[in-house]
Amino acid sequence: QAFFCLLLCIPWGSSCPPSCQCTERAGAKAVLCSSQHLEEIPKDIPRDVVFLKLDANSITRIPNNAFRHLSHLEEIDLSRNAIEKIDRAAFKGVAAGLRTLDLSSNRIRSIPKEALLALNAKLRLANNPWHCECALQEVLWEARLDLDSIQDITCHTAPREEYVGKPLLQVLDAGVNFCSVRQRTTDVAMFITMFGWFAMVIVYVVCYVRHNREDSCRHGGYLRSPPSAQARAE
């Protein structure tokens, strides 16, 4: 925060999004758009920006390729917005150089793991109404999370009521595995589907055998009947 305050004092001359401040210090360019009532990410952010602050706005979604043209980005602050949806390729193009991504204090319930696991950045995900599920568990296990805020990743909703309100890390430490629950659900669904097909095959075979048996009985009865009866039948 102190670094951004220093950046505010040194404006730079290239184009800057409306309602934002663009500054530079020691060659590092920053775009500061905090508390500007923005509802989406500005389209005209300079390509050579290094620090981007979009906190305390009303942004609801991070679309695919939102920062793709900003290859120099190292820090993005999206905290204290109203973000509900993050697309799978939201951070495509900035994964290699990004060092910090702050998504804390939004309205995020779930997030595609592909959007975060490709990043090397330190993530802040605290104070969101998370639905504890397999994708979030994988993010917690594999992504680089900010250790100071990891305890504030809390289950707002969960498959079982007993997990609600608890830190996700505490739930996982107790031995819960949301990914195995999903796998069991998938296995049950596959078993039911296979059983349904098997039952259909059995019913078909039974009907087929019964039909052939009835035809054979009728044909045998015809052969055993007297010639006069066969003549009348003909």
Automatic annotation (TrEMBL):
Organism ancestry: Eukaryota, Metazoa, Chordata, Craniata, Vertebrata
Signal peptide: 1-22
Sequence intervals crossing the membrane: 188-209
Main location (coarse class): membrane
SUPFAM superfamilies: L domain-like (SSF52058)
Any matching Pfam family: LRRNT
Name the UniProt record assigns to this protein: Leucine-rich repeat-containing protein 3
SMART domains according to UniProt: LRR_TYP, LRRNT
Gene Ontology CC: one annotated term: plasma membrane
Keyword check for Cell cycle: no
Record domain LRRNT: where: 15-51
Organism this protein belongs to: Promerops cafer
